[in-house]
C-alpha cells in the first residue's frame, strides 16, 4: 500500500515551472530516496507535500486521504515529520528545549494551565528518553548553537522524529557533514526510522545506496525514473542527467 502519493503535482514560482505533473509513490515502510541535480525541485516537492506551499495543481494523498493544501501543523498531527535542508533548530534553546518543542507540537498541548502542568511531567520524560536514544543526554542543557555541527544536525533529525511520525521526510540530513559525522548520522537515521516510512533527499550517493530501498530521480521538476537502486544505477537517462555532475 502507498502511504504517500502525489498525483499530477504541479507548482511554479511566478510562472517559473518548478514541479510539473509529479506522480510520486511511496510504499508504507519503505526508505525512499529522492535524488536529482541542484535546482531539480526536490525541496519544493517536500514543501508541497508537507504543507509549506499549496500546490498550484494536482493532489497530495497521505494515508488514503486527500491532504492537498493542509497546513504544516496539520500534517504533523496526521503523522508526518520533517527536517529541513538548512539547519532549523532554535539556536538559543538547549537540546532539551528543542526536542521538547517537537514533542509538544505533536501532542498539540494547549496552554490551559491545569492540564498543562499535569502533562508537563510526561513531556519531560519523553523528551529525556529521546535525548538518551540519540546520545545527546550529556548535552541536554547546552544551547543548540554550542553543539558541534554533526550533533546539531543529529538534533535536527531527531526533532523530525520526536513527533513519532509514521512518515519522516529528511532534506539532505548529511549536508556539510564530515565523513565520520555522515557515518554516524546514517546509523542514527537507520536506527530511528526502523519500522517507519522515510523519504530522504540526499546528494551523497553512498548514503543513498546504503539507506534506500527505492529511488526517485527528479530532473527539471519531472520524475525521470523511479525504481530499485540497482535499476536506477543502470538507467541511461539517469546517467545522462547526471553527466558532469557526479558519479552514481
Ligand atoms: N521560494 C522560491 N521562489 C522562487 N523560486 C524558487 C523558490 N524556491 C525554489 N525556487 C526555484 O525553484 C527551483 C527548484 O528549487 P529547489 O530548492 O526545489 O531545488 P532542489 O532540487 O531542492 O535543489 P538543491 O539540490 O540545490 O537543494 C530552483 O530553480 C529554485 O531557484
Ligand atoms: Mg533542496
Quick summary:
This protein is of the alpha/beta class. It has helices at residues 42-49, 72-78, 95-107, 113-133, 149-162, 179-192, 205-211, 229-234, 236-241, and strands at 2-13, 16-22, 25-27, 31-35, 57-62, 65-66, 80-83, 167-171, 197-201, 214-219, 222-227.
The number of helical elements comes to 9
Instruction: Note the overall shape.
Output: globular
CATH architecture: 3-Layer(aba) Sandwich
* Gyration radius over CA: 18 Å
User: From the helix content, strand content and strand pairing, which structural class follows?
Assistant: alpha/beta
Helix and strand pattern: EEEEHEEHEHHHEHEHEEHH
Mean pLDDT across residues: 89
CATH fold descriptor: Rossmann fold
What is the makeup of the main sheet?
Answer: 6 strands, mixed
Number of domains: 1
Topology:
Elements: E1 2-13, E2 16-22, E3 25-27, E4 31-35, H1 42-49, E5 57-62, E6 65-66, H2 72-78, E7 80-83, H3 95-107, H4 113-133, H5 149-162, E8 167-171, H6 179-192, E9 197-201, H7 205-211, E10 214-219, E11 222-227, H8 229-234, H9 236-241
Parallel strand pairs: 4-9, 4-10, 7-8, 8-9
Antiparallel strand pairs: 1-2, 1-3, 1-5, 5-6, 10-11
Helix pairs in contact: 3-4, 3-5, 5-6
Bound molecules: adenosine-5'-triphosphate and magnesium ion.
